[in-house]
Structures are given as C-alpha cells and as structure tokens.
Amino acid sequence: MFYHWCTVRRLCPKKPLLQLVIQARGLSGADAINALRPFYFAVHPDFFGQHPREREINENSLKRLNGYLENLQKPGSRSFKPTELTFYVREREQNSSNVQEPFAASGFRAVRFTLHTRDLLSTVLDILKSCSLSTEHVQSLNGGGESQSNQKTERTFHRPIKWDKTYYSFTGFKDPEEELEQAQRMETTLSSWLDSNEKRAGRKLKNSLPLRKELDRLKGELCHQLQLSDIRWQRSWGIAHRCSQLHSLSRLAQQSPEAPRNAKGRTVIFTDRSGMSATGHVMLGTMDVHHHWTKIFERLPSYSTLQRKVLLLEDNISHLLGGIQVTYVEELQPMLTLEEYYSILDSFYNRVRNSRLPFHPRSLRGLQMILESDRYAPSLHELGHFIVPTVCDPATLQWFILTKAQQAREKLLRKEELALLETELIKASAEKFCLQRLYKELSVSSMQMIHACSRLLEEEALPYLQGMHLCISHFYSVLQDGDLCIPWNWKN
C-alpha cells in the first residue's frame, strides 16, 4: 500500500514545484498523476479501512493501473494489452460541513472499465469519465500547453500549492494541514485504540460466533461431499458472505451432482472470476451464476493438456537460465488463470530463447524466480525470489541474476529460519494474551509480522485482547465480524 501513499504525497508537496510545461501532443507522467488527483482521492485504499474487500480490490487495481501508465511512458513501447480494471469509488460528500463521516450516505459504487488507449492524455480522460469525475481541469491544462511549449525559462508558483478541491468534496475535511497537525497532536497508540474499540469489537465478535460455527460446518461438509482438498477465499470477505458462497456451492452440488465431481482432490477458491488458477486450483467467481460454475467444473478435465504445457515451458525456461526454478507464488502475485499464466510463460520463453543468454548449465540450481507482466526492472524479494518482468531486457536480466545470485541463496536459507521464527512468535503471542486467533494480512511481510509479535510479547498486559481475533495489518480497524486490526508498526 505504501506506493499509493507515495503517489498522494507527490500530489501534496511541501516545497513549491517548478511549473510543469504541458506539450500540446499530450501529458507527461507527472502531469498525468496531477490530472488523476480526483481519481486517487476517490479510490485510495486507505479510505476503505472499514471495508477490507473493497480496499483490497482497489489496491490490486491501482497496482495494475500504475503498470499500464508506466508502459505508456516507456520509450519504444508499442505493444499494449487491454487492461480491465475494477474500482470502488467513494461517493461525493453530500454535506461538506459534516466532517465526522468520511463516507457519504450512499457509501461507494463499483466501476469497471477497460483501458486500451495508447497515450497518457486519452487514458487519463477515459479513467476520469468512467468514474464520472470532472475532466475540465485536464482539458484546460492541455489546451494551454501549446502557448507554453516555447517557453524555455522555468517559473515558480506565486503561492504555496494547496490540495485539490476534490479532496474536500470527497472527504469533507475543512483543511488538510489542520487535520495533519491535529493527527500529530492526537496520535493513536495501541492501548488508547484498544480502550476505545474493545467493546464494539466484542459485540461484533459475539454476534458472529453462530455464523463462524456455521461456516466451519458447511466447509467441512462440502470438502467431504465433493472430496475437495480445501476451500479458500482470495479476499477478506465477511463470515456471512462466505457462508452465502458455500450455500451456493452446496445448492449447485444438489442440482448438478455430476459436474463438481471433476474437482475431486483439488482446492476451490472463491475469487473475482471463474476458471482454473495458475496453480491448478478451481476458481469460482463470486459474481457469476451457477451456470458459469457448472461450466468450469465440466471443463476441468480439458485443462490437463494446458497444465502439461505450462510445466514444459517452466522446464524449458529453467534450462535456458542455468537451472533457476520458475515458480508461481500466490502471496506475491495477482490471481492469474491458467491461460494467462501460459501466455506469460510463452512470451518470456520466446524472448529468452531468441536472446541465447550464456548461462552455464545448472549454475543457478536452487534459485527461484517468478514472472510479472506489470514490472520493467528485475528485483530480488526479501524471501529470495527473483521477480522478473516478462519484458525485461535479456542482457539486463543476465547481469542482475549473476550479481544477485549469492544474495538470493542467502535469503532463501534465511526464509526457512524466518518462517519458523514467525510461527513460534505467533503461537507465543496468542498464548500470552489468550487470543482466539492471531493472523496477518497478505500484504504484511514475514519481517513485519515478526517485528509486530516481538513487540506484542514486550507488552506487560493487554486485557482487551483476551478471547479476540487479532489481525496484524497496516491500519487500525474493527472488521464487521469483530476482528481487531492493528498496524504492524503501532505507536506505544
């Protein structure tokens, strides 16, 4: 989530900026970010703290949008794949004087659109129009670009830059600077927040207990009936929502008992769309009707050929890159269908094969890499995985892997130690405070979880936590079923 805040911080600088010159032919990258300010304020995940599902969808969509915008700015880029995005857009505040409620009465609405334009200006306009946001500020900026393009001298603004007015219309805040000062004076601490929210969380948790038992019962029955390996959820949906999805699957199994039998031994994941995942799990889209689910179950046997092709491509890429293992990690990558993953592998394989990189055979055995289509520079994850863009320059890739190989091996060895330490600290923290459950969000790294649990164990007493469900996150929140969310780096 931090990269979203970096975007917002760029929109609200502390120093006067040099006036940007907008060319008549389109917008620059900085101008595009400026023009999208109303959009960022309307969909920013941090404003959806009480709605984890919508917050996570916006996080993932913003990540894909940033990749699309970066691709538009990359010199020489000519290949653009249409990108479908879904955002939850906050409604405008009806009563701007009411600063107590950050959401309007109508809450938010879902917006889905597809990006297919090849320049920044058209893309920015499409995004704003799709979300029913004003485009006047973009058109006026672009219109004045021609007269300014011949100016070679740079001028500074005559007054400090203030936040865009759309910030006030969406949040209802009177003055962002005053809000920041007040937040600094009244900074939330762990004990003060628990003191203020323990009773509300306790009531919600008590009300959710019958549904939690029902969820466990339904999941156990369906796993036994359909002989499934497991049933999981991609997003942090509430207990009632999960029960509803299991009831739908149970009705399907009763109405069409033959089709679900094809899922024997597999894991079913409730997610945003239906299909087979890159890891071979059955994806059931929560917005799809039973007819679509039935088709997916019926098609499962036909996926075996494609799965073999995926494994063959992974082996071929590994052979070309010195034996490094190509893998797919659900926690680090977006949920891809098997068809999408095959397309990524095939594209990367052809790119590497044609470049004929001189890796020594089996010199990189024991190392691991994952492929991502929305990056442009390789990186090394803290857990030791190489994160490789599918469009990465082969020579750059070779240099990066060879120079980081030893560091990657050390991180992979350290990963096992971290996993063991994280498990031990979670168990110790849960026992010390008599927690019913202690877990973390997927966006919280192992190092952050270890840091949070270590600090929890240093606390002398937190009686409010007894019997609660505690989630280590990036923000404070009480979920709809009574789970307490606290940031991993809370303040004492």
From TrEMBL:
Could you tell me which InterPro entries the record lists for this protein? Answer: DUF4460 (IPR028031), DUF4461 (IPR027989), TCAIM (IPR027986)
Residue ranges of domain DUF4460 in the record:
24-133
Provide the DUF4461 domain boundaries. 188-491
Cellular component terms (Gene Ontology): mitochondrion
Q: Name one Pfam family in it.
A: DUF4461
Cite the PANTHER family for this sequence: T-CELL ACTIVATION INHIBITOR, MITOCHONDRIAL
Give the protein's recorded name: T cell activation inhibitor, mitochondrial
Task: Tell me the organism.
Answer: Salvator merianae (Argentine black and white tegu)
